[in-house]
Amino acid sequence: MNTTRTILILFLLGISALAESQLPLPPPPPPPPSGSGEINKADSLVNEGDIQGAIAEYKKMYSLNPDDARTAYNYACVLSRGSQIDSAFRYLNLVVRLNPSATPLTDPDLLNLREDKRWADFENNLIPILNRKNGNAIKDIDYAKSLWRLLCMDQSCFYETGIAVRKLGPGSPVVAALRRLQTIYSGNNLEELESLLSQKGWPKRSEVGPEAAGAAFFVLQHSNAVAQQKYISMFEKCCRENEGSWQQYALMFDRMRMNQNKPQRFGTHTYLDPKAGSPNELYPLEDDSKVDEWRKEIGLEPLKDYLKRTNIKYQPSSVKR
Prior knowledge:
- The protein is mostly helical.
- It is built from 16 helices and no strands.
- It has a domain at about 5-225.
- The chain has helices at about 5-20, 40-45, 50-65, 70-80, 85-100, 110-115, 120-135, 140-155, 160-170, 175-200, 205-210, 210-220, 225-240, 245-260, 290-295, 305-310.
- α1 (about 5-20) packs across α9 (about 160-170) and α4 (about 70-80) runs antiparallel to α5 (about 85-100).
- The protein is globular.
- Residues about 5-35 have low confidence and may be disordered.
């Protein structure tokens, strides 16, 4: 679902759920920047889990503006979640003609389509279109396909878990079962990623495209400190070759430190456990006198400038850690 607001809502729900869970479930990724304006009725229905209602609303929206690629894409997503596979493929193919992108290749809303025999043709037809559009960025197609699927699986179940937490409460057995499923998915994803990394090395943007390259980060971000420490140097090398994202590197480095019960370096994370600190409070820094120096070295803005755009509370320490 190409709706920033929806992702942000589910992220916040995920933090609340994780904080009260006893299962070793990795936390969700940081939220994307929020958009402006109010959420529309169709997206509200999606957030509530009313897929059939959302399908009806998106049908109305699409009929009023059939050339809007965003509406057509979201319509395809809810049709997929509603198991209306033929119609979902119809509108997804329309989106490719209107505004082709790699988004469908990593979207968990389209998992039902991925399980259909027509998915391979859809993917194979989209790749050359993306290469024409983006300067042949996808060279290692087999590696890219594996990474797209991994990223799709990595993002799955957050939507369902968010609905369950809100409707049933974090202590519900339904929520516990969904978290357990996510933990299984995360373990399987990590095992497959490690196999790929041993064969191919860290994915480069110039070889698999930026979306596929990001899959390794997300899978490891939702794994554990041992795996993160094992591959952080490989990730750093890729970034120094201008083939990876320094922002993602900072997020993974700080997550690794948190998982090791150590202070973070770059200031990218808040508390995820209210018992330890407020969720909108900055997790402790390794050295707040050097944090901006470390951030500048990898191209990040000063911490105070970043925090101005957030509701994150931070009080610089007068005592060196």
